[in-house]
Amino acid sequence: MKKSKRIAVCGLLVATALVLSLVERMFPLQAVVPIPGIKLGLANVVTLFALTRLRLRETIAIVVVRVLLSSIFAGSITAFLFSLFGGLLAMFVMKALFYVEGYWVSLAGISVAGAAAHNIGQIGAAVLVLGTADVMGYLPLLLVLSIPMGLVTGSVCTAVLGHIKKLHFFI
C-alpha cells in the first residue's frame, strides 16, 4: 500500500475511534453496571482492526493520536495518562497474541486479553499518578469485567472483518 494511502487510512481509523468514543459516552454503562469509570471500550475495536491490517508502527500512531485527541476534546491530563498506558499495553498484548491466533486463542480471546491489559495499564497509571497502591484493589473487579467488554469489542471487530471484503478499496 502506498504511503499516502496508509496515512489516509490511519486518519480514517483515528476519526472512527474518536466517533466510537463519543458514542460510548452517550450511553453511560454506569446506569446498567454501577461501577465508576466502566466503559465498553469501543475505540479498541479500531486498535484490534488496525492490528489485523496495518503495521505495528501505524497502529501505535493510531492509538497515540486517538488518545491525545480524545483527551484534548473531552479529557484531562490524567485521562490522557490512563488512556495512553491502557491503550498501549492493550495493543502490545493483543499484537503478541496474534502470533498464536487460531492455535491458542481466537480474535475474541485476543480482545478479552486486550481489555484486561487496558485495565492493568490504567491501574498502573493510577498508581503512578496517585502515588498509592490502594487503587489496585479495584483491579480484580475490572479484570472480571474485561471478559464481557472484550467479547463485545471482539465480536464487533469480527463482524467488521467479515464485511471488509466488500470494500475492495480499503486495506
State the main characteristics.
mainly alpha; 73% helix; 171 residues; single chain
Kindly summarize this structure in a few lines.
The chain is built from six helices and no strands.
Write the layout of secondary structure elements.
Blueprint lengths: L2 H24 L16 H11 L2 H19 L2 H22 L8 H24 L8 H25 L8
Helix pairs in contact: 1-2, 1-3, 2-4, 2-6, 3-4, 4-5, 5-6
User: In DSSP terms, counting alpha (H) and pi (I) runs of 4 or more, how many helices?
Assistant: 6
Note the run of SSEs as H and E.
Answer: HHHHHH
| Counted beta strands | 0
Major sheet summary line: none
Oligomeric organization of the protein chains: single chain
Straight-line distance between termini: 8 Å
**What is the CA-based Rg, rounded?**
16 Å
Indicate the structural class: mainly alpha
Beta-strand percentage?
A: under 5%
Helix content: over 70%
Residue-averaged pLDDT, rounded? 88
Unreliable stretches (pLDDT < 50, length at least 5) are none
- What is the 3D shape? globular
